Amino acid sequence: MTPIKFYLVTDTHYYEPSLGASGKAYEEYMKTEQILLAESSDMVKAVFAQIMADKETEYVILPGDLSKNGEKESHNSFIKELYKLKKAGKKVYVITAGHDYNEWSRSFVNDECVPTPGVSLEELYDLYYDFGYSEALAVDKQTLSYVAEIAPKVRLLAVNCDSSDDAKGVIDDRLLDWLQVQIDDAKKNDCFVFAINHYPIIPSVPVFDLVGDAHVKDWRKIASFFADNGVELAFTGHMHIQSINEFYSKSGNRFVDICTSATVGSPVQYRKIDITADAVMTVETLDVPDFGWDLGGLSVREFCDRQFVVSNINKINRALDGDEKYKKLLKKFLNSVKISTLGKLLFIKPDKSIKDKKFMDFAGEVGCKIFAGDQPYVEGTAVHSAVSGVLKRFNFIIKKVEPKLQKGDEPLNLTEMLLNTIANNKGFSDNNAVIKLKNTK
After folding, report:
1. Residues 367 and 400 in one domain
2. Do both 19 and 69 map to the same domain?
3. How many domains does the chain have?
4. Is 71 within a domain?
5. Same domain for 150 and 82?
6. What is the pLDDT of the chain when averaged over all its residues?
7. CA distances (Å), 412 to each of 210, 233, 402, in order?
8. Structural domain of residue 141, as residue ranges?
9. Do 263 and 343 fall within a single domain?
10. Angle at 118 between CA 114 and CA 122, to 5 degrees
11. Residue 355's CB: how many other CB atoms inside 10 A?
12. Residue 185: which CATH number?
């Protein structure tokens, strides 16, 4: 096959600074927002500058959520940055997603959050025509999916599963039929085919299988479709997480999903992909570089991690706001209780390395590690022992809940699912990996 190298940049959530990023409404909004808003344009520019400095890697691929919330001015500014990539010799291919059309187009003026002109789904084709559609061999106008031969005998299957407000994360039978035609044509022409899709196809961590918006609907069917049709790779985003997962169809064919974090939020990374002539893929994870802001002595990663933790703590506290006495007590308890106290209540002795941590800070730290990939809390670590102890205490409840959460005839072991979510037991890295393609089980 033709060797190919490309950069994978997902969930840029680009926000045009002139729309405003200050004032009381902005500050209130950012209390529960995981990704950076005011800084996003400079972060994206810094990543693009780093990519343009690489004269050997020709391609840049972006799988959706290009803008913050579909603001027309955000799209216009972002497209100017894409043209700079093209001018520097890069070939750029995008798909759009739910955040790119009229989802919640707002700006911050003085101390208020006010509506700003947004972009409709139908407008996105013309806006991004020069970044994939102009080279397309075929386009499904209903979803804005397309296929393009981006290098000799290498075809990109750009799947858009966010084609309408009521069908987000859906690859339906009509679209599968269209994809089948494109894959068959690629096979007839002896092409290597890989896919991009905004939503992860395989849940990024096991517990996300229980979260409907964390993966495409009916993901096993979709993963099997690709695997059994010889499309072994998909590059995805949406969940702002670093993960590499594999799935085998009932026929024994493998499918690999490489999900990448947001460019503008924890763990603030992107990827470089190198597929050789003998079908060996190297996945390299890169950090978003310094983008010229004063971050108070923190690194870009530390700054984004802090926003991730604080925003999630604020979401929990906001959910517990209210006059009900139980909410007030629970809120006070969660924000003050230490792991050691929880251990006593549950008759568990936590390791001394974590016992003095406040529960909310501890949970935020664990969350950051999960989204960064290569989850370190394997058996024998303090966190794994603590979580395992809690799950044992609540085993009688878990066993009652499992039948209600089970989907179809797939067996569900909730304890195992949760422990495998905090520990990477896959045998390969979520961040840097070498994968031989065209393997079967």
Report:
1. yes
2. yes
3. 2
4. yes
5. yes
6. 96
7. 10, 26, 6
8. 4-292+431-436
9. no
10. 160
11. 18
12. 3.60.21.10
- Residue 77 counted as domain residue: yes
Q: What is the pLDDT of residue 1?
A: 87
pLDDT digits (tens, 9 = 90+) for 54-82: 999 999 999 999 999 999 999 999 999 99
- Report whether 270 contacts 8 (CB < 8 A): yes
Give residue 217's Cα distance to chain centre. 16
Distance CA 149, CA 84 (A): 22
Instruction: Report the SS3 class of residue 15.
Output: coil
Examine the pLDDT at 175 and tell me if it is beyond 70.
yes
The pLDDT-based confidence of 438 (bands split at 50, 70, 90) is confident
Domain check: are 167 and 288 in the same one? yes
Tokens of 195: 């896919």
Answer yes or no: is 349 within a domain: yes
The token duo for 157 is: 């299957």
Does residue 275 sit in the same domain as residue 405? no
CA-nearest of 284, 282, 288, 295 to 262 is 288
- Interval 356-404: pLDDT, tens: 999 999 999 999 999 999 999 999 999 999 999 999 999 999 999 999 8
DSSP 407: -
For strands 254-259 and 233-236, give the pairing.
parallel
Strands 145-151, 59-63: pairing is unpaired
In the chain, the amino acid numbered 28 is: E
Contacts 24+ apart (CB under 8 A), 21-29: 21/108, 22/108, 23/108, 23/109, 23/110, 23/111, 23/112, 24/111, 25/108, 25/111, 25/112, 25/113, 26/108, 26/113, 29/108, 29/113
Strand partners, 162: 168
Give the integer Cα–Cα distance in Å for 432 and 398. 35
Pairwise CA distance, residues 231 & 225, whole Å: 8
Cis-peptide, bond into residue 267, ω within 30° of zero: yes
The answer to the question of residue 441 being in a domain is no
Same domain, 271 and 207: yes
Q: Regarding beta strands 154-159 and 145-151, do their DSSP bridges make them parallel or antiparallel, or are they unpaired? A: antiparallel
**314 and 191 belong to one structural domain:** no
For 158, phi then psi, to 5°, come to: -90, 105
Question: Cβ atoms within 10 A of the Cβ of 1, count?
Answer: 17
